[in-house]
Write the structure tokens for this entry.
Amino acid sequence: MTSDQAPLTRTRARALHAARHALRVPPVPRGFRADIEGMRALAVLGVMLWHAGVTLLPGGFAGVDVFFVVSGFLMTSLLLEEGRARGRIDLARFYARRARRLLPAALAALAGTALLTVVFLPRGRWAEVGGDLVASATYVVNWRMAWRSVDYLDLERAPSPLQHYWSLSVEEQFYLLWPVILLGLLVYAAGRARVFRAASWVVTLALFGASLALSWWWTLEEPAAYFVTPTRVHELMLGAIVALGARAWPRLPRWVAAVVGWTGLSLIVLSLVVITRETLFPGLWALLPTGGTALVLIAGPAAGRVGPVLLLRWSPLQWLGRLSYSLYLWHWPFIAVAAELVHVGRGGPDTLPVGWGLLALALAVVPAWLSFVLVEDPVRRHGRVLAARLTPGQATWRTLRLGLNCTLAGAALGVAVIAVAPPSPTESAARWRTPAVVDEMRSPVGADTLAVGVDDPAATTPAPTTPADAPVEAAAAGSGVSGALGEPPAVVEVPQEVGEPAVPLEQVPDDVPALKPEDCFVGLSGTRVGVCEAGDPDGTRTVALIGDSHASMWMTALDQIGRDRGWRVIAMTKSSCPPARGLTIERTGQAGDYRQCSTWQDNLDEVLLEQSPDVVLLSSASYGTTGAEKVAAGLGRRIDMLDEAGMRAALIRDVPRAPFDVPACLLENQEDVPQCSFDRQDGLDASGTGHELLAEQRPGLPVLDLTAAVCPGRTCSPIVGEVVVWRDSNHLSATYVRSLRDVVEEQVVPVVRTDQLGETVRAGVEVGTGR
């Protein structure tokens, strides 16, 4: 005998009566609410069109927030109704219903995404997507995205085809915790009506307020706040607030409810238009779409046909609303594949062209409709069949097994994709292994091979010496890197085939510098200044690297130089942040500026004074949206600060930037490597914003230019000496930097030598000569 079939004793009757009295909510309306279905349609339409690049809806991503409020309202209503009708909340039954509703369709989409990945995405991305599949199947992918500092609002990078599962993860985590909280309140109230009413409102409002405050604060400081559950709870709680007040809303006068409803619908539409990628989101701005959704939910029962349902019941919107879950699951993988096909973030357009985006959406409708017809709707109907044939307990546990199987199958898909992916070591293993490849596998390799081209007369001609006070033209006459490598050849032959590079292609993206301690490099969200240690810890001279990741990539060479020459080498670097002083950086996905960078720049002053290095080497990447004049001025202010503190400053000119991801290109063109070469001048134009201007403005500034060692000819080869030069589109691989040790030493030694610390020294090649 189940608990539902137990005799109605006096104690049980009292408990049921007390529970009903305590909750004081009417039964959840069994009738269909067309306004909710219409809002789902608006939400998914906004998300899909924004992903497709339609500029008329710059805030289309706010459609997800509409879903959150609707979910919070429906789930809380169901839980309260169960407590009212049954005197308790059956957690197993609730989770079973959610599993049947969500997991089979989600598994179908995961399987389709795995297939799209293997067919269309480069093999180098399979392992990452496989990990996303596992995280999506287990509904923790939002934390995986946050940990990887993924920028959801950045449309300029090749995205994960599973990135959209972050919102489903948030909802699933809400479904796990919120029923337990309500059950705890019901048990605590023990039939006391006022206690339950007070406790439920206090807890709900507290969660709403705390999450909203955290969302506001964290969004200011942390780009990953977009993904994490604590910053989104307030949106779900807003729906819960509407559910808790369900007794009051039907009593609103019809004209008042109509005004409230139309106001809410207007706020939803307004949010899709006025919110942009530069808006601090979610933060307080999330109240625009979520508040509008709450108003529509409140107005629905009382406003009737004169409310927003007048528009939302339009048949195309109702059709989209029915398919909204399947459309949401399927549209993004097709968008991600389209972005890959046009090489977004890998040398193609900056963002996905609208035509490609709309084509991807059109194609995605087919599997979405099939998923709804063949999976989502049949599984839902089958649940009603099971409920009629089996006892409630049997139906619940059978459905829970279905959900568990879906989760395990999705995770197994991810493991399978990882298994068929090209072998790649973990990032930490690659950091330790790849620098030694140069010594262990072959010699010479990388840049060292540039000195071996004896058939070219230029290869054995030493570079002319340029006096320290020589004009730019004189330095230009000796273009190339002087010293151990000799004058590099005017043209370096691009190999036809990849062959067997020193670091396998699949491992090149992990061929990064070994920075210690492990967290010394500051990510996008950090503002503290970490100090990475290398070289000789007891060295008599201290050489510091400051800037972004384009500065820190030189640590592989400087570490060896420091060990040999007795220099202490330190790095103070932050992702996507130049060492400029008083400079505001614009960055996609930020609210107009990169505030964490500005704070880090301010904090850098104090740490530099504490460390007091003898020589400070500055370098930075491309910041085209900020402008060369502003970046050069900011770098100039930093140099002035260093001069005033008695520290010697020198600029490391940024290396040419490839118009695509080099290892990915090589994986696709292993027998046609020239397809992955590019024009050197184009690469220079796209790199090191403000570097040439800074050198022109400050002729006494030492400039270390490694362009000739990275790209000796007019065409940059992706492979030199069987070493892949770039690990992505703009960072040199650690192995190639390791092979640059001698030329880096030749250019940096004159800046560090004691007898030249007070003189004007121009090391290496003048900026602008590597053309």
Remarks:
- Residues 3-23+35-420 form one domain.
- Residues 151-156, 453-489, 588-592, 754-771 have pLDDT under 50 and may be disordered.
- The CA atoms of residues 89 and 183 lie 6 Å apart.
